[in-house]
Amino acid sequence: MVTIFRWLVRLTVGLIGLALALVLLAWYFAIRSLPDYDDRYEVAGISAPVEIVRTTEDVPHIFGKTDRDVFFALGLAHAQDRLFQMTVLRRAAQGRLAEIYGPGAIRADDLARRLGLYRNARASLEAQDPQARAALQAYAEGVNAWIGQVNLGARGRGAPEFFLYPEDIAYWEPADSLAVLKLLAASSTVQMRREVLRARLSLADPARGQDLVARPGEPSMPGYAALFPGARFAAPERGAGPQDWTATLAGYLAPSAGATANGFAAAKARTAAGGALLANDPQFALTAPGLWYLARIELASGGVIGGTIPGMPLVLSGRNTRLAWGVTPAQIDDQDLYVEEVQPGDPNRYRGAEGWTAFATRRETLRIRGAEPQTITLRETENGPIIPGAQLDLATVLPAGHVAALSWTGGFGNDRSMSALLALMQAPDRGAAAQALGDLIAPAMIVTLADGAGVGQLLAGAVPRRSPSHQTAGRMPAPGWIAANRWQGLDAAPAAATDLDPESGITAATGAALPGVPGLGHDGDSGYRQARLRHLIDSREVHSRDSFIAAQNDIVSPVARALLPLVGADLWFTDEPAAQGTPERLRQDALALLANWDGAMSEHLPEPLIYAAWMRALQDRLVRDDLGPLADDLTELYPGFIDRVFRDTGGASAWCDIRQSAPVETCTQIARQALDAALLDLTARFGPDLASWRWGDLHRARHVHPALGDMRGLSYIVNLIQPTSGGDATIARAGMLGHGRNPWLNVTGAAYRGVYDLADPDSSVFIISTGQSGHPLSRHYDDMAELWRRGEYVGMSLDPDLARAAAAGVTRLEPAAN
């Protein structure tokens, strides 16, 4: 017995020692990929020595003899900190995520291949101007130089994730950067998803379904089923629900995920310091590391500083010595879905405008980690590529014997958008910037501009030209064989969308339609955020950098301020005080809190939680009996719909009556029932003490690592979770998940914020949502996350002496001898 015990002890000690050795070995290889920012490298591809000066926040300031050398060094700096993220973005655009993630990424790969993101990116390389091609080539060589250094110095494969996904790291090509821009464009628009939703609403309730998404002044649409006389649609089924959020972020960006931003500026006459101010905060899905990366580059035209996206040689939002610019994804209607009839008995042909026509087809192979490769057939019609019914719930709106094709402004191979954006960041003034942006195709953006003489705003990007006879005006899928439904070409943004010198000296955009430019989009911002931003900017005669920072971090919900007095009009203080501990008393206490609330969605307050839960329960109660299973897929609040219902606009109060019940319910009854249901749910979660509830307990920002975020154990290291203020409708937008046990989880937000002060450029401030490094063991992986959560910033100067004085490390690149 003693002998057995001794051997058990020895075996246990041995296993512990082996586990410890494996952990130490993994840690050793992981830290090998941490770059030394105070090092010297000999590299081929530069003409003279280059310095990359790193600040204490790991922001690179790049100084070189030529622009080519500077873009080379930017590529190397991106690769040092974000090599895994860059390769994943490239794979997402190429449709090659399944090669590392396995079968779970097949759907994403299939969509990327059908959209032709990488194929069109390669085709557009020759369309770029010579300066852009030179920048793309130099950037690619810089990325590859770092990959070479990783291989030469056994630097842990460049990032620890590569040990878990053992695929070769392919060298970067200029077309890869164009593909990342295509992916960004595809992820910025939601029009395809919106068209499907409108069609589903029409099928679920032909009479009133469109009430949810209708906009004031828009003509009514025909019933979707009426567009296809005699066609059979599949019976509605209870869907599986929205796709897992982490799965959608496998490539950091996902087509049709959507994006927005705030961009606002004040001319020097409206500022305290006598120089223009500009603020910008592009809002995408929150990931770890975040999408954005801060950088400063010194070009022949002068210094440029701001937010970059690793994979592209661009300062997408920032300033140079004379001009500041900010970008806001413009929710114009840049996509149209077409329903194509497949010829009965011949699946290789479809009904064209002049008769049955053969699909253009090609076959591609998807390599899948841990499974056999799959060959897919990609088909195209005259209207664009065929999108499978499994994507974006398309199968729910396709008649039997039909397929869906997509027309999209970004789906072409002669796209000079990269050249336009590279020219923008070197433009000396608003006029030159506007001229440069004339070549932008996709993504369509509202660009806010500021220089020493004033401020302005313009819409940049291609706009589809539709016939006035288009059956759905592009708002729903339309029959593809009818010539009037097809695009008549692409136009530049209309002149009415440009105002480079507003009389007020103030300009602002949130993604909503531009004033005086109707019909460019059907969704976008509902208008509440735009009105709130204009109020904040117009209410002050003179602005400062601090007032712009305050506006950028504003957490007051204009939707809460608009809806609560309307929905609760007949509930406030209408009952006798109820006994403590009763549902009636709980409701009274909740209403008393909301009655004195200013709409600030603070993480420390209970009121935002009560409001958000009430509105969610209210909308569900209004639509569930009418829309059936579709109600499960309505993951966002439609405040315009609730407003129309409670104002009985066009008889919309009919939504308050529950069809399956004999009595006729009033909107006041539905509002009371929804509030009780919301309070019951919150009480089960947090107990009956309303004062102890906190918005931040459920509204937590989840910055998820696309590759490791779902891995048990590792998720605690790589994901960042923190309580946040704000909501879907606040200027400091903190978009919510909308489904699952915690629908209030914060999953989108301003992953980059910048406020540019042209009176004192070195007082400009910036922040990103995580940190500069993509390495989970780096201190720069999350060192900005808490500052970002609190609405704080870091300074970045274009003064070389200041950059060097605060340097935490200087990387020196020397031309290789041979």
UniProtKB/TrEMBL annotation:
Signal peptide: none annotated. Binds 1 Ca(2+) ion per dimer. Ca(2+) binds at residues 195, 333, 336. Coiled coil: none annotated. The keyword Signal does not apply. It holds the Pfam family Penicil_amidase. The chain crosses the membrane at residues 7-30. Keywords: Calcium, Hydrolase, Membrane, Metal-binding, Transmembrane, Transmembrane helix, Zymogen. Its cofactor is Ca(2+). GO terms for biological process: antibiotic biosynthetic process. Gene3D superfamilies: 1.10.1400.10, 2.30.120.10, Glutamine Phosphoribosylpyrophosphate, subunit 1, domain 1 (3.60.20.10), Penicillin Amidohydrolase, domain 1 (1.10.439.10). GO terms for molecular function: hydrolase activity, acting on carbon-nitrogen (but not peptide) bonds, in linear amides; metal ion binding. Belongs to the peptidase S45 family. PANTHER family: ACYL-HOMOSERINE LACTONE ACYLASE QUIP, PEPTIDASE S45 PENICILLIN AMIDASE. This is Penicillin amidase. It comes from Paracoccus aminovorans.
